[in-house]
Amino acid sequence: MARIAFLGLGAMGSRMAAHLLAAGHELAVWNREAAKAAPLVANGARLAATPRQAALRAEFVLSMVRDDAASRAVWMDGESGALAGLGPNALAIECSTLSLSWVQALARACAEAGSAFIDAPLAGSRPQAEAKALVFFVGGKPDDVSRARPVLGELGAAIHHAGDVGAGMAFKLAVNTLLAVQAGLMAELICGLGRAGQDTARAIEIIGQTPVCAPAAKIAAEMMLKGAFAPLFPIELVEKDLGYAQSAFGEPGGQGLPLTQAARALFHRAVEAGFGGEHFSAIVKTYRD
Questions:
Q1: Mean pLDDT score of the chain, rounded to an integer?
Q2: Is 251:243 a contact under the CB 8 Å cutoff?
Q3: Of 36, 132, 141, 172, catalytic
Q4: 172 is catalytic
């Protein structure tokens, strides 16, 4: 069994850390709100006061946090950051969805400190985390990816080596962009069909059986019709990821990605309307309200 540190115990991280603990690994955990670690500590995890303390002696250090700012604080803080606690044989694994530029900067910082690094963002939400059915997109050296596979295998159903460092994050941003564009278009079609006097539920049922409709788009549309807006993947995080995609894939100034730009504007409007904490299917409210 391995010595593992897990940083960030939100909705996803707490579930992932619990699987590692159940598998018998020696687990140190850190979270900004220490109280969230209580269930893990009760089952044998060690609560660390800082990311640096969690990383001490760890063979693998995983991070699952909200955004670039949180990742930067977790890894790079001069006094408490995990990077300062990494040993020479430790492997840093960033599972958060972040900007490509920050992931590349973090990889350089790890290399300068003599530590190995891979980016391993994932597809899936809380149900997939519960079921150990996450899909990982991994960027890094082949040896480092191979070393991480047994650990990631405790958490997911598939591990795709996308390429060098940063490739995993690029693939994840592309996946989230595709999801956002499809969800936004489904919301637009549902409301447009309704204005045209059509039975929207019947329309989605039929459209969902055609080759042009992706499974994720059909599920999103069905959730919109049911009003199922529990925040598995909140609108505000989709908007954040679309901004990262614009920076990663666009021309200087964020141009050259008209569909991504339009989708981000739509999701930003939803955040401003107060829907940011709801599931991305609530994007349909921007058309209704």
A1: 97
A2: no
A3: 172
A4: yes
